[in-house]
Design a protein that fits this description.
Blueprint (H helix, E strand, L loop, with lengths): L2 E3 H15 L3 E5 L3 H4 L2 H6 L4 E3 L4 H12 L4 E7 H7 L1 H9 L6 E5 L17 H6 L5 E3 L4 H13 L4 E4 L4 E3 L15 E4 L4 E5 L3 H13 L5 E5 L2 E3 L3 H11 L2 E8 L4 H12 L4 E6 L9 H7 L4 H14 L1
Parallel strand pairs: 2-3, 2-4, 4-5, 5-7, 6-7, 10-11, 10-13, 13-14
Antiparallel strand pairs: 1-8, 6-12, 9-11
Helix pairs in contact: 1-8, 4-6, 9-13, 10-11
Amino acid sequence: MQKTATREAYGKALAALGQKNEKIVVLDADLSKSTKTADFKKVCPDRFINMGIAEGNMMSVAAGMSTCGKIPFVSTFAIFAAGRAFEQIRNSICYPKLNVKICATHAGLTVGEDGASHQSVEDISLMRSIPNMTVICPSDSVETEAAINAVAEYNGPCYVRLGRLAVSVINDREDYKFQIGKAVTLRQGKDAAIIATGIMVEAALEAYNILAEEGIKVKVINIHTIKPIDEQAIIDAARETGVVITAEEHSIIGGLGSAVCEVLSENHPVPVVRVGIKDTFGESGKPAELLNAYGLTAENIAKSVKKGLSLK
């Protein structure tokens, strides 16, 4: 099966966009080989700026450039984008609602051997808490390309969460359509609903197969936009199935699980079981080993569905 990291897809999409749209400029904090903005630099060198290891300043410069009609795409690792530059993103980009696209790579546990200091498991929580910010977490290379094209057209601040690990392509079908704020239903089922984001969408599809063999039919929904979240899709899934399981490569505090609970508690309360990182830091290790150690697997999603069914 074909596997591509979402950061790789980002680099290719950005390079293609840059050649079509001269308003696009790219700023990077001395990590262009890793974030793949080097692909843009090769084809549009005059519109690429290496800002050095000065992430806060980079966000402020991007904010300024956006007021001059440019469309800045800003990249660094998620831990530095969402964490180190939080104040500038909040005050210089989101408060005036400027047209800056923050595309943060190396998010989540799958950074692997870089360990806890580089494993951003809080970035979705941080970014979705800021007014005016749109937050997107693509599940594969196809969705990443679609998301990058969509945010280039969208007028306002965007945070796109990208990964280091090569992941399977799951959206390579003719009827696939990406729309900011609209969930994608991948499988139908009435017993429970699995709502997943990012690389956990593939795990959710694997869990569907595991459960189907046991006669349990689940609905699988890909929530690629964490904010604005598709409230109607979540409410409908809860009404249809009576129990929801969320899955994310992120802390269960403030991420997708929290967002889904917020929607359901106010609109259609049902049991929710959250699969994610349980209020702990990551550690150094191979990506697959870490996903297994922290329960971010198809098997654990299937187990969580059964727990959810017991709560119905």
